[in-house]
Design brief:
- The chain is mainly beta.
- The protein contains 5 helices and 27 strands.
- The chain folds into 2 domains: 201 residues, Jelly Rolls; 146 residues, Porin, CATH 2.40.160.90.
- Strands 1, 4, 6, 7, 10, 13, 14, 17, 18 and 19 form a 10-stranded antiparallel beta sheet that branches. A 9-stranded mixed beta sheet has the order 3-2-5-8-9-11-12-15-16, with no helix packed on it.
- β2 and β3 form a beta hairpin.
- The protein is elongated and about 75 Å long.
- The N and C termini lie far apart (96 Å).
- This is FecR domain-containing protein.
């Protein structure tokens, strides 16, 4: 009888594959996905085997952990992609799935909630893989587009309000709504479609904030941390600082010093383009904006003209307040310039300042701010010279 010598090899390979898969799975589950950055009161994490452990500052959070706060508890965790989730009092959330690789569309952040009050701020994953950033509740699923939102969930009802960014989607088997206006939200009852978006009332916002902010016992078990997010609801962090001039798109590798009149060729006109980070504030709701700008600097006449274009111009209030497509007029002084921000109605609503960098003014960056009818906008800009016209 001929012996099949390949059979033991196949069996050994299958056993090795199973063992490798088991080890890989166990290894993935052992990796921390988030860290506690703030908490009050009693807060615990329950792993998938049912074992509970108390949480304290800098405690690690793992995939499949069920996070729980008591009647005085509050918790804030920071994920590796810089997403932030806040749990209010008497809240439970499971980290159902998390894996992130920078720039990968296969990244996932899925959380599951039964009851409680929460705030979610998307990090890098909300930009890389927004389709995989979801919170599941008994009545509907919340999807993120790179945004911030707060919500209260029970087994019978979900109330969620959009607080800034590009928008959120709320959906179940019976319907879907998209919300892109800060301060607007929806309510979803069990076995019903999401209600059409509507502006949340002061009472609705107050109830959410009371659950998130509360009067938790800061001296309780594991208490500690800076809970600024609890004391400043309905806001988002300020836009990030512009990178050094050498890190702006297309800028040279060597950092530039400030330009001076002595080295600027006053016979040319330079055209500059670049990006904007800004905040739009209305009724204490802060919306982060991005955009682009175009400047034309005439170094002979010492004048600058241009325009600022902010994203989210589909929100009609931006046009009404002159935030979209504002014009700028200013006069350079040495290496810097100052001027005015002008609304679409040609009224001055703010100021515009900046400076040129490089031996031939290759780079420009600065800031602007404005206010009209109780609404404010402020931001920073930076970019490079794209065209030079010799006069």
């Amino acid at each position: 009888m001929k012996i099949n010598t390949s059979l033991p090899i196949i069996i050994a390979f299958l056993i090795l594959s199973c063992l490798t898969g088991a080890v890989s799975s166990a290894y993935a589950e052992s990796l921390a996905v988030a860290t506690v950055v703030a908490l009050r009161g009693t807060v615990v994490a329950q792993n998938k085997s049912g074992t509970e452990r108390p949480l304290s500052m800098k405690s690690q959070i793992f995939q499949e952990d069920l996070l729980k706060t008591d009647k005085n508890g509050q918790l804030q965790i920071l994920f590796s992609d810089k997403s932030i989730i806040t749990l209010g009092r008497e809240s439970e959330m499971k980290i159902a799935e998390y894996h992130w690789q920078p720039g990968q569309k296969e990244s996932v952040l899925k959380t599951q909630v039964k009851e409680g009050t929460f705030r979610v701020m998307g990090g890098a994953m909300a930009k890389d893989a927004p389709q995989n950033f979801k919170t599941e509740t008994p009545t509907a699923t919340i999807g993120i587009r790179g945004s911030m939102y707060a919500f209260r969930s029970t087994v019978q009802q979900l109330s969620v309000v959009f607080q800034g960014g590009r928008g959120i989607d709320i959906f179940n088997d019976l319907g879907r709504v998209a919300i892109t206006t800060p301060g607007f939200g929806t309510h979803v009852m069990l076995n019903t479609p999401p209600a059409p978006p509507s502006r949340f009332t002061e009472q609705e916002l107050k109830r959410l904030n009371q659950q998130l902010n509360g009067n938790g016992d800061s001296s309780g078990n594991g208490g500690g941390g800076n809970l600024n997010s609890f004391t400043a609801p309905l806001t988002v962090p300020p836009p990030p600082q512009l990178p050094p001039t050498n890190e702006l798109p297309g800028a040279p590798a060597t950092p530039f010093a400030l330009s001076t009149n002595a080295v600027i060729n006053t016979s040319f006109v330079g055209t500059y383009t670049g990006g904007i980070d800004a905040n739009y504030t209305d009724n204490n709701v802060v919306t982060p904006l991005t955009g682009t700008f175009n400047l034309t600097a005439n170094f002979a006449s010492q004048s600058i003209t241009g325009d600022i274009n902010l994203n989210h111009i589909d929100h009609t209030a931006f046009d009404n307040y002159g935030i979209s497509g504002v014009s700028i007029t200013s006069t350079p002084t040495s290496n810097s310039f100052t001027g005015s921000v002008v609304s679409s109605s040609e009224s001055i609503i703010g100021s515009f300042t900046g400076a040129f960098y490089g031996p031939a003014a290759e780079v420009v960056k600065g800031g602007f701010s404005g206010s009209e009818n109780g609404v404010t906008v402020n931001g920073t800009f930076g970019g490079n010279r794209t065209t030079t016209l010799i006069q």
